[in-house]
Design brief:
Chains A, B: Keywords: DNA-binding, Transcription, Transcription regulation. The structure is a homodimer. In chain A, 56% of the residues lie in helices and 7% in strands. In chain A, helix 2 (55-66) crosses helix 4. The first copy, chain A, is elongated, with a radius of gyration of 23 Å. Chain A has a domain at 53-141: Winged helix-like DNA-binding domain superfamily/Winged helix DNA-binding domain (Arc Repressor Mutant, subunit A), CATH 1.10.10.10. By secondary structure, the first copy, chain A, is mainly α. The N and C termini of chain A lie far apart (64 Å). In chain A, strands 1-3-2 form a 3-stranded antiparallel beta sheet. Residues 1-9 of chain A have low confidence and may be disordered. The first copy, chain A, has helices at residues 27-51, 55-66, 72-79, 83-95, 117-137, 143-155, and strands at 70-71, 99-103, 111-115. At the A-B interface, helix 1, helix 2, strand 2, helix 5 and helix 6 of A face helix 1, helix 3, strand 2, helix 6 and helix 7 of B. The structure holds a DNA duplex.
DNA sequence: CGTATTATGTCAACGATGCTGACTTATAGT
DNA sequence: ACTATAAGTCAGCATCGTTGACATAATACG
């Protein structure tokens, strides 16, 4: 059915022009974020495949390494996923010896999470290609420009921060 | 349940200090990207839920609106997913009247994709909260700073670009 | 013309990662 | 003692990605 074949009736209106609302909606940044993140997370996948892990494992290993001793509740809050989702993946990391749990010294209900050496090695191996990509994206960027990027990215986060302490 | 009681001996080396390789690996940007994207994509979810769609639908509607007349192959290349993955979701959008297909005028094997008015409306509704978030993240940013952010995000993409014409 | 290639669609099975709901256990707080 | 909290677990389900195999139609080409 080319452009203007006269069909019975109800010709559903096709729109052939690109969305022309660039004045009120920032399509460019929306797409740049999509492409940037798509390729950014693709880096670690090859490495993860070898261990039989996925992106969910990556996140856990990353944050536990960044903040050793964080509790399960901390991790849930950071990742914004459910306990059941986390459990499945976390268990694999513990069973495989990448992460260890220790009962909290003050509140023994808590499980404080620590990386093993293997966990730290994995986290580092996964962060490396991502870091190289970031460095490449920043090439020739001044300190001020880098700061602009950080400020932008921080601004993209939700600001709700429920006070729970 | 497996409330671990006494461990035999084997004290596996726990690492209690945060990963100290910030000199060679840019953990800060890695995390900022994670949080930014996590919240960025969360915006449209509420809207999508109402239509019974998901993020996969969002991406398709977005790109078809941005480049009406793109082919299925174009879309596959853009999203970097498989034909089978795309088909399932694209079919729903077509059946629901958000996207229409037209046989290519020169190569009739192709299916050129166009948004309907409903498709355009949906794309716009989904882009809106994201755009607002971006504007907020850019508040008080100069044109030069915005440009720095764009340059960074562009630099995060893969540069392979296989010439296929 | 006939064959190969290409663009798309489809069936089937599976895997990763989310979700909800319901329940248990151990510990802490009052 | 009673209640609340931190964590773990079981069961089922949804979304969205994958591979592999095959079908159809149209184009490309020797």
């Amino acid at each position: 059915m080319p452009r203007q074949t006269s069909q019975k009736a109800v010709k559903p209106e096709l729109l052939a022009t690109p969305m022309g609302n660039a004045d009120i909606v920032d399509f460019e940044i929306i797409e740049l974020l999509f492409f940037a993140y798509r390729d950014f997370v693709s880096d670690p996948d090859a490495i993860l495949g070898k261990s039989g892990f996925g992106r969910a494992h990556h996140r856990i290993v990353h944050f536990v390494n960044r903040e050793p001793g964080m509790t399960v509740a901390d991790l849930l809050e950071t990742l914004k996923i459910t306990k059941q989702s986390l459990a499945r993946v976390l268990k694999q990391l513990i069973d495989s010896g990448y992460i260890h749990q220790v009962a909290g010294p003050e509140d023994r209900r808590q499980r404080k999470l620590y990386p093993t050496q293997a966990g730290r090695d994995l986290a580092l191996a996964l962060a490396e290609p991502q870091s190289r990509r970031i460095e490449k994206a920043f090439e020739n960027a001044s300190a001020a420009e880098r700061e602009s990027v950080k400020r932008f990215l921080r601004g993209m986060r939700d600001r709700n921060k429920i006070e729970t302490n």
